[in-house]
Design brief:
Layout: H1 2-17, H2 25-31, H3 36-47, H4 51-69, H5 74-80, H6 86-97, E1 132-136, E2 139-149, H7 153-165, E3 177-184, E4 187-195, E5 207-211, E6 214-221, H8 226-237, E7 244-246, E8 250-256, E9 266-275
Antiparallel strand pairs: 1-6, 2-4, 2-5, 3-4, 3-8, 6-9, 7-9, 8-9
Length: 276
């Protein structure tokens, strides 16, 4: 566990050492021996924020300290921490600190500080996370997809589902799967999809995609516990995993109708694995 957490901490230390430079998510994720897709998923679960939010908070903290303790010009500090103009920097600065960059120079100015993260996993109470590992052949999904950005996806994906649900009986698919895939930097596609049956026509506005055969870790949960289970997968289960590594550039939420006598739908999170 400590080796895995150590590698993740190394990625955070790398960001700290290069806050004044352009930070590429692929390079950062590589420090933790992870793909950008999984790095950003795990970072959110472990740290409670996106990678982008963390970088912005740290840069704003460092920028305020520099303005308060030196004679550096506002434009120079803005450029140093990745802002194209003094105006965009000033707006971001005021949102974070509640004062303008010029006011940050005044004696006694009250500035907000966001400290560097240090990852530490503490297992308490012997919590159990049920799962099973199964092997599945390739299968094809059919559905609708929309691009999202990792910095805003947690807020925007529920809206995607709400739009789909609002169609009522006109919905072209049942919504069995929610699939994250095709990460490019911070951008990825999210699908609302069903299992594709080749003898059926593809509904208007939908498309298909093959999901490769794989070993899958399948975690049962409910709609109420989905977010909690997702966090536990990345923050507790993965650090303690032995004999397997993450595979692919996707993970899947599965929504099944309630079993007879049950009130809630059966919900699963599937994570692709490979033996090591």
């Amino acid at each position: 566990m400590q080796s895995w957490i150590g590698a993740f901490q190394e990625s955070i230390d790398f960001m700290e050492q290069n806050m004044a430079d352009e930070l590429d998510i692929g390079t950062v994720a590589g420090k933790a021996a992870l793909s950008p897709f999984y790095y950003q998923r795990i970072f959110g679960a472990l740290c409670g924020m996106t990678v982008g939010d963390y970088i912005r908070a740290r840069r704003m903290t460092l920028a305020a300290q520099e303005l308060n303790r030196s004679d550096a010009r506002v434009i120079d500090v803005a450029v140093k921490y990745g802002y194209d103009s003094p105006d965009s920097f000033a707006k971001a600065f005021q949102r974070f600190h509640g004062i303008t960059p010029s006011q940050a120079r005044e004696p006694g100015a009250v500035l907000r500080s966001f400290a560097p993260l240090h990852i530490k996993i503490t297992l308490e109470g012997g919590n159990m996370l049920d799962y099973r590992i199964v092997e599945k052949a390739p299968f094809t999904i059919v559905g609708i997809r929309r691009p999202f950005n990792s910095d805003t996806s947690y807020q925007e994906i529920p809206g995607f589902w709400d739009e789909w649900l609002a169609q009522g009986e006109a919905r072209p698919i049942k919504g069995t799967f929610g699939v994250c895939m095709d990460m490019k930097g911070k951008d990825f596609d999210y699908w609302i999809a069903d299992l594709y049956l080749p003898w059926e026509e593809i509904p208007v506005g939908c498309e298909t995609r093959v999901i490769p055969g794989s070993l899958w870790a399948q975690f049962p949960c409910t709609m109420k516990t989905l977010q909690k289970t997702n966090t536990e997968i990345w923050s507790e289960w993965l650090p303690a995993l032995h004999g397997y590594a993450l595979a692919g550039e996707y993970d899947i939420e599965v929504y099944l109708p309630p079993e007879e006598g049950a009130e809630d739908s059966a919900v699963y999170i599937w994570v692709p694995l490979v033996k090591v």
